[in-house]
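Recall the central idea of this unit: under ordinary conditions, the amino acid sequence of a chain determines the structure it adopts. In this exercise we apply that idea directly, starting from the sequence alone.
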Amino acid sequence: MKAYIFPGQGAQYPGMGKDLFESSKIAAKYFNEADEILGFKISDIMFDGSAEDLRQTSVTQPAIFLHSVILAISKGESVLPKMVAGHSLGEFSALVVNKSISFEDGLKLVSIRANAMQKACENNPGTMAAVLGLENEIVEKVCQKVDGIVVAANYNCPGQLVISGEIKSIESACEKLKENGARRALVLPVGGAFHSPLMEEAKKELEDVIHKTVFSAPICPIYQNVNGLPFSSEEEIKNNLILQLTSPVKWTQSVDKMIKDGASEFIEVGPGKVLQGLVRKINRDIECSSLNLKDVE
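Accordingly, the structure predicted from this sequence is:
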């Protein structure tokens, strides 16, 4: 059974989506529509902008969403998933592809989410750090003993957990984690403390918009970040999307559950190959690939 997975922030690269725009009339139509919905030419930034241009959260998140969703749409009926999952931002891409929300509503939600997160980062400065080579339980216990806000944010794969929180608390946690045997505890070059309590104001802003958005019954379950379990109920999907902003991304748990439920092949839809690498570290026997441009309509 094929499982489609959708990347999150960090997968962007200069020139992303340009080959898709040039090879598919359907893709070109959706890129032009996206420029109108957003009120600025995001396609120009994606195709010709610099890496720095693409690092702005207000651009990064919709750009990755557009690359992922338009690629899937351009493949037409050949992309009819039996199960989907997305890493953080990628959940919104997954929800368009499994027909829970429309392309337009998905893009609007992603844009609102990105701007709300950017404001939360400015009002509540924070950062994140990657911790390698320690059991999750040890990382969690160390974080609990550190003063200030520091929490587990991304359970990416066995031996790789990202923590998030206040800057001094993250720095302190990194030192303590190294003392406890971490192979690496490295502060990441990110704009804020995503998936932590410091995103509470962004969560409140997004909550109102999500509840006002029309969600439909999906064609297949989405395995959501907050607990790694499959959902098909519109209300449960909405609530999990809201909780996601201040909750950890349980990617390892999601992939494990998808495999248990019959996933035999994971197909990454969107820029980069980060998720394929994580899936292989979670289960090296599972086949992984990217959705490519061949045979786009």
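The mean pLDDT is 94.
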